[in-house]
Write a structure and sequence with these properties.
Oligomer: heterodimer
Shape of chain A: globular
Number of helices of chain A: 0
Strand content of chain B: over 45%
Order of helices and strands of chain B: EEEEEEEEEEEE
Helix content of chain A: under 10%
Structural class of chain A: mainly beta
């Protein structure tokens, strides 16, 4: 069990540029989540995949944000035309599903985005 | 949508002493799960303790225990015999027993352990 891996860990970009983050979940986990965390706040849900299907998106996920999970393995989160308000920690988490599973999420270390 | 409230932004505790973190939540559901997660500085969030709403017995994990009051919608975390490694942000989280496993988090409590 290698845990949830996120890359890059830190990204500094200029306003208007596009950025992409990658998340590799725990291999046997079929559910994958993206959260955003700003300073002094708890994580806020962005979107959720079950296998390759994106089943839910938060209203926080504007048109500039897109997430994919091809083949139900790793996931990418792309932010187009970044704005300073996008500066945050982007957290990925994964979990199993099924009867008896109590819903613990396993988190990665996060990708910190700074938009100048 | 469920809301989770943590009202004490920072708590200080002497090493070896006990600290209690408060959490309240708002839900109309009867079947759900509650969690406390720990987030050390620059490190990943890890689960500290879990409580199923249908269980009356409070969960305990070593030095960590909870006081779950379902009617009051209260879920506090007690850290006993505090250690320097307990210094972190602690987040209370709620998950419905139905649906996609999405967690709703509070704003967190910063725990400072004084040697």
């Amino acid at each position: 069990d290698t845990g949830v891996s996120q890359n890059p860990r830190h990204k500094i970009t200029k306003r208007g540029q596009n950025v992409t983050f990658r998340c590799d979940p725990i291999s046997e986990h079929n559910r994958l989540y993206w959260y955003r965390q700003t300073l002094g706040q708890g994580p806020e849900f962005l979107t959720y995949f079950q296998n390759e299907a994106q089943l839910e998106k938060s209203r926080l996920l504007s048109d500039r944000f897109s997430a994919e999970r091809p083949k139900g393995s790793f996931s990418t989160l792309e932010i187009q035309r970044t704005e300073q308000g996008d500066s945050a920690m982007y957290l990925c988490a994964s979990s199993r599903s099924g009867t008896g599973y109590t819903g613990e999420l396993f988190f990665g270390e996060g990708s910190r985005l700074t938009v100048l | 949508a469920q809301t989770v409230t943590q009202s004490q932004p920072e708590m200080s505790v002497q090493e070896a002493e006990t600290v209690t973190l408060s959490c309240t939540y708002d839900t109309s559901e009867s079947d759900y799960y509650l969690f406390w997660y720990k987030q050390p500085p620059s490190r990943q969030m890890i689960l500290v303790i879990r409580q199923e709403a249908y269980k009356q017995q409070n969960a305990t994990e070593n030095r960590f225990s909870v006081n779950f009051q379902k009617a009051a919608k209260s879920f506090s975390l007690k850290i006993s015999d505090s250690q320097l490694g307990d210094a972190a942000m602690y987040f209370c989280a709620y998950r419905s027993a139905h649906g996609n496993n999405r967690l709703a988090f509070g704003k967190g409590n910063q725990v400072v352990v004084i040697p």
